[in-house]
Write a structure and sequence with these properties.
Elements lengths: L4 E2 L6 H9 L5 E2 L3 H4 L1 H14 L3 E2 L7 H12 L33 E2 L2 E2 L13 H10 L8 E2 L5 E2 L2
Parallel strand pairs: 1-2, 2-3
Antiparallel strand pairs: 4-5, 6-7
Length: 155
């Protein structure tokens, strides 16, 4: 059959441990911004590696989460693919790279994004832009979409 990927809504290594123990998963998708950061991501990935399961970090958020996910990918022999949300429909009013002083560390060329090499996570946040966007504010809610037949769809 087709590979089964999951885990974007799991938050602890213990949840991943239980999922991996079932032996049904081919790819885990921890979200660095929800599971405890790079250190916890490394622990989760060590579990996945023990089960010969691939890594595809979930990353629908901003440039810091993407840069952190890429750092995890860089040290994970089982990294398979990196999700990102540049240009996606829900980025209204600004996009992921708009928050950076220099967009080049997260540039995608021919479907690939290099591991950022600068200090820290390798990106510098444009704090003035963050402050400007914070004035606009938001009341984000999970969007509701429907299929052609009217049934509820999620993402």
């Amino acid at each position: 059959g087709y590979p089964l990927a999951t885990g974007e809504r799991l938050h602890t290594r213990f949840q991943f441990r239980d999922l991996l123990a079932d032996g049904m998963i081919d790819i885990i998708q921890p979200d660095i911004s929800h599971c405890g950061g790079i250190s916890e991501g490394l622990k989760i990935n060590a579990l996945a590696s023990a089960y010969d399961v691939a890594l595809a970090p979930h990353c629908p958020l901003g440039p810091l989460t993407l840069a952190a996910s890429l750092q995890l990918d860089a040290v994970s022999h089982n990294a398979f693919i990196q999700e990102q949300s540049m240009g996606i429909h829900y980025n209204q009013g600004n996009d992921v790279l708009d928050y950076l002083v220099d967009k080049s560390p997260l540039a995608i060329e021919d479907g690939f994004c290099a591991i950022p090499q600068g200090p820290g996570l390798g990106v510098e946040i444009n704090e003035e832009f963050v402050e400007e966007r914070a004035k606009v504010g938001h009341r984000w809610r999970n969007p509701v979409w429907t299929h052609e037949d009217g049934s509820i769809a999620e993402w």
